[in-house]
Write a structure and sequence with these properties.
alpha/beta; 36% helix
Length: 181
């Protein structure tokens, strides 16, 4: 779970895997049919594949998992289908209450990738969440090669990147920080 690349299409997913992504998440805000259409080929990338918000699409595509936000339903179905379950958390309370195999926690910093993002929690907030939960925490929100290692040093198991999904320097920074743990 070192580098979680959040992408909207197969071409970007392929470039992200070439750059070192260890998980690819398809994030498309659309109907299940469109998510399925856009997700074709993701299962052949050679890394775990997660679908954002849509359990039915994840099942149809043969994805390894689904990532659900705070307001998304489907956790029970995801569990019954044997899918890896990721949940978003923007606060310590949300993180502690989440039924998940991993947590996407943030935003750590301000991010232009999500206009309706919660206020940034910073490294101190990330550190508190990492210390309080017993599932892997993936830091998200404003993460790039310049600050990914700081997230790992704060206790995160990995980072999620949108703008930096195809930057090989992110994987290098994460690997280096994990090696120093």
């Amino acid at each position: 779970m070192r580098v979680h690349a959040i992408v909207e299409d197969l071409a970007t997913a392929q470039r992200a895997v070439e750059a070192g992504a260890t998980i690819v998440q398809l994030r498309v805000k659309a109907s299940t049919a469109e998510v399925v259409e856009r997700g074709l080929g993701f299962d052949a990338l050679g890394v775990p594949f997660v679908v954002n918000d849509d359990v039915a699409a994840a099942v149809t595509l043969g994805a390894n998992g689904v990532h659900l936000g705070q307001g998304d339903s489907g956790a029970t179905e995801a569990r019954s289908r044997g899918l890896l379950l990721g949940r978003s958390a923007a606060t310590l309370e949300q993180a502690m209450a989440a039924d998940a195999d991993y947590l996407g926690v943030g935003p750590i910093w301000e991010t232009p990738s999500k206009a309706d993002a919660d206020p940034p929690i910073g490294l101190a907030g990330l550190r508190r969440v990492c210390a309080a939960v017993d599932v892997p925490v993936i830091a998200i929100g404003g993460v790039d090669a310049s600050n990914a290692a700081a997230c790992i040093r704060a206790g995160a198991a990995g980072v999620a990147v949108v703008r930096a999904a195809t930057d090989p320097h992110v994987r290098s920074a994460v690997d280096e920080a994990l090696g120093a743990r």
